[in-house]
Structures are given as structure tokens and as C-alpha cells.
Amino acid sequence: MACPRPLSQKSFIGPPAPVHVALEAQQRMCDPTSLPPGPPAGRWPLPLSRHQKEMSSNREQRSAVFVILFALITILILYSSNSANEVFHYGSLRGRTRRPIDFKKWSITEGYVPLLGNKTLPSRCRQCVIVTSSSHLLGTKLGPEIERAECTIRMNDAPTTGYSADVGNKTTFRVVAHSSVFRVLRRPQEFVNRTPETVFIFWGPPDRMRKPQGSLVRVIQRAGLAFPNLEAYAVSPSRMRQFDDLFRGETGKDREKSHSWLSTGWFTMVIAVELCDHVHVYGMIPPDYCSQGSRAQRMPYHYYEPKGPDECVTYIQNEHSRKGNHHRFITEKRVFSSWAQLYGITFSHPSWT
Is residue 113 one of the residues assigned to a domain? Predict the structure, then answer.
């Protein structure tokens, strides 16, 4: 485009402008270096309507992303909040939601079903001892003292052979979890023939104890055919519900919603209180033991597994865990402590109340 002809004062209507100002403006218009830069070669601005559409689309996409992120964050916060409400935090216990149940009054015949014959679970001992599986018993030389007890209660597949100097041999009752049935029955010389007076009490979820394929009850009954002296009972489904109700009443937690498994120690303690006037427990640590900084050395979880997991590591991991189902060992011990005076329970090696 050609530059316009020079401006003159006659071209203006109104007050005349100085001639040098008009000339400078004309020169700037004709100077190519003073023009604004154009678009890069091969690229031209989009039509305004298309450009606006793309801008609008980008804004909508960003808005959708923000909405999705906000929804995901909200869901995660709600999930974490709900999960935290049902997890046992280490060292905490809500306390009872009602007065403690007197489970000394629970029916023995309704709670324990005979698996071999029509016998009834022996219902009374004046003085019982619970021998735990803790490595705190090693080196104690408690064997003779334990042998003198009226009734001795052991758990799962804790052996006495090779450890009798510390834990004794006498076994009046052995409380066995569904997960330990095969470990016990595969060693009849240790758990059946060695102490023929032993009464076995098996516990487990009803669907696992009597499932159509591989029923644990049938396994135990077949073992009874091979060992006529075997006396065995199973915790009834109604009593299993009572154990769950007891846990909820003592802790304020629903066992299933809090992803908790009751331990064999929980069943053993309740059974001992049901059957015995007084209970003494050997080898159970107090609930605050693992939070103390004075622990001198690593202690195996079981006295018969010296290379097994550390006791406190096992307790704390189970108490804190949120994923999956776990035993709440420390919480259970806090409950046992609250029962001590009420039900005549004492603890030693270590001693605590």
C-alpha cells in the first residue's frame, strides 16, 4: 500500500496543527520498522469465533478436572475418617459401654459342644494357672510350681517337651484356635499321649469349624477314633457371638467393623474365669510394656520359636494395623487388667495388675 500524500494544513477541519507534527506522523506510517510485527511465516490468527470456542472448551476441561480432583479428595478424607474411627490406636481404649458381664454365670453346657460322645465340660476348678507361650518364661524354673496347680491351661500348639523345667508338663485344658488344629493333631505324642488327661477346647468361626468341605469338626472326630482317650469340645456358635458381644462391651468397638480378630488369649482368659475361682497367669506382659523404653533385649513371641518374630513388634504392628484383620493384643491386655480385681486374676513373670 502506497504512503498517503503529504498532509497539509488545508486537509484539517478545525484548529490547524503544527506542520512538523503532521509530517512526523506521516513519516512514522511510512517507516516499515515502526509497524507492529506480523504473525510468523505460515501461521495466521484463527478466526475470532473459532478461537473463542477453543478457549471456552479449555476452560470447561479445566473445570471438569478440578471437580473430579475435589470429589476424589473428599472421598479419601471421608474414607480415612471412617477408617480411623474403627481402628485401635496404640495405647487407647474407649472403656466399657456398660457394666461388665458376669460371665461366671454363662451356661457351660450351652457354650461348649462335645465333639466326642455326650460328655459335659468339667465346670469348676478352685485354682487355675494359665501358662502363656511367651519367651518371658524361659529360665524361670517355674515347672515344679506349675505342676502343683489344681488346673493348668495352655494354648494352641505350645509344647512342654524340652521346656518342662520352665513351663511344666501338666495340662488340664488346652484351648486351640481353628488355625492350630492341624498343628496339634499332627503331633499326638506331644499333645495327646503325653498328657492323656487333657481336655481340648477348640474355637473358631462356625463357617470354618463346620464348612461342608474339610470340616474341622470331622477332622477332630476322626482323631478321636484313633485316640479313644481324646476329650474334645467346640465353642458353640451362640457362645462365639457372646465373645464378640463381650469384646464390644469392654472396648466400645465392634469386632468386625474394626477388623479385629479375637486372640486365643482372649478365649482362654474368659474360659478360665468361667471354670475357675482364681486365675494366675504366667508370662503375660502388661499392656504398657511395649511402650516402655527400658526393654533390655529382643524377646521372641513364642518360647518355643527362638528365631521367631519379636514380641513387642508383633503386638504393636497388630494394634496399629488398618488393612486386613488383626489381633488387638494390647487392647485385650488392658481389658484383662480391668478384670483382675473383679474376677481374681493375678499376673507374674512379669508381675503386674
Answer: yes
User: Max alpha carbon distance in the chain (Å)?
Assistant: 134
Query: pLDDT digit string (tens) for 326-337?
Result: 889 999 999 999
CATH code (residue 269): 3.90.1480.20
Is the Cβ–Cβ distance between 233 and 201 less than 8 Å?
yes
Residues 110-114: contacts with CB under 8 Å, at least 24 apart: 110/236, 110/238, 110/239, 111/235, 111/236, 111/238, 111/239, 111/242, 111/274, 112/201, 112/233, 112/234, 112/235, 112/236, 112/239, 113/233, 113/234, 113/235, 113/236, 114/232, 114/233
Mention every residue, 6+ apart, whose C-beta is less than 8 A from residue 101.
Answer: 245, 246, 249
Q: How many CA atoms lie within 13 A of 264 on its CB side?
A: 22
Say how many CA atoms lie within 13 Å of 3 toward its Cβ.
Answer: 12
Convert the pLDDT of each residue in 211-241 to its tens digit: 756 689 999 999 999 998 899 999 999 999 9
The sign of the CA dihedral 344, 345, 347, 353 is negative
SS3 for 89?
Answer: coil
- The residue range of the domain holding 338 is 106-285+295-348
Question: Is the full-model pTM beyond 0.90?
Answer: no
